[in-house]
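A common beginner's mistake is to predict each chain separately and then try to dock the pieces by hand. The better habit, illustrated here, is to supply every component at once so that their relative placement is modeled jointly.
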Amino acid sequence: MDDKKNRGELFDEKLMKQIRERFLHVEEDPVLKEKRLFFDNAGGSIRLKAANEAFKKVDEMPDCPEHSNKSALELAAIQAKGTEDVLRVVFNAKTGSLVTSLTASMAIFEMTRAIIENVPGTNVVTTKLEHPSAYDAIVLNAQRCGKEIRVADTNKRTGGVDVEAITKLIDMNTCLLSVIYASNISGAVNDMEKIVKEARKIKPDLYILCDSVQHVPHKAVDIDKLHVDGLNFAPYKFFGPRGMGFGYLSERAAKLPHNKLLAKPSDVWELGSPAPAHFAAITEVVNYVCWIGGHFVKTEDRRKLYEEGMNRINLHERALLHHVLNGSDKVEGLRKMKGVKVFLDYEDLSTRDLIIAMGIDNLDPKKAVAEYEKEGVVAFERVSTSIYSARMLNSFEIEGCIRVSPLHCNTVDEMDRFLMVTKKLADKYSPR
Ligand SMILES: Cc1ncc(COP(=O)(O)O)c(C=O)c1O
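With all components supplied together, the output reads:
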């Protein structure tokens, strides 16, 4: 493996400082008013100041974006811009429809339902790696429509799903393939381009959905390359506020029968009045990523700026991942630390997002998370007794792990602080 590629690339100090200034509560817990490392961004990321401010400002306006007074027109323009930013910039979709919902789960449930109910085929294919929102949507709808459910196994070494594990389940009678982009437990990024290409070799017009909730905050997704029928994400995991799930649907999927007002065009998936504040907030998230991109490329093209911004975020995060796994002169990395185990760890960091599944000997994950909190680190346990992790962990044959999910606004010094705390806990619970 090319070590240079694995090492990623850190933001320079000046840009790093500016990045951190743009986020809320990077260093201090807003409730406890104590310094802490927030390493639970996979559960909800720290927020951009600009996204929250825009949300508040727009949400204060009582006007209805479908009316014609001047402030209403302003709200309509904010909504149109946000829609454009999600579809054309975040997803890079030239055509297709926007799906809005309260959560990313609700979005993928509806997208899954429309396909399973209306597309011919006797089976649906998914994977053991799915979040319950995608998995349960498959099970509920397939059972109701009398379709067979085929589930691809995970790769116990990488924590992802191999292309062949999926393609061997697909045939001409497959109605839908639903695959997660990146795991919310292992951080493994599935090779979606290859999965789509190989799957469509078997069934050229196969409908494909992809839960991209955990990948969108770490790398640009690209409908123009992927050609899937649906993607989704949640702004609250992408530097923005809670309360919205965004989805993309291809033209053909958008036109499938779905819940809508009868008089609206057949490809409209908005039902009722989504809050314009959410559109203002996502535009600020996109502005922020483009601002990062603008430090590295000179272009007026918003998608190109965004792509470069996400690429730089990805490279910085890879450098943090490399650092935390391998350590430095100051402190040992997780891979070598006595009493510590990194689960689902493999060499190629370019196919992993900044999410680490780890364990400390003689310390159960839930207790470990409490111990970390006492030491000023917020992480989260993923255990097989939780409905949100059972299927994935059982497939890896792991009972539980500590999930550590920093973000690109973290520094190498913060990784070192985390390593020192980990060493303290490992020494305490598994002394040599
Ligand atoms: C991979 C993945 N998909 C879907 C979801 C659900 O997102 P939401 O809470 O917006 O429904 C999550 C939330 O943790 C997730 O990690």
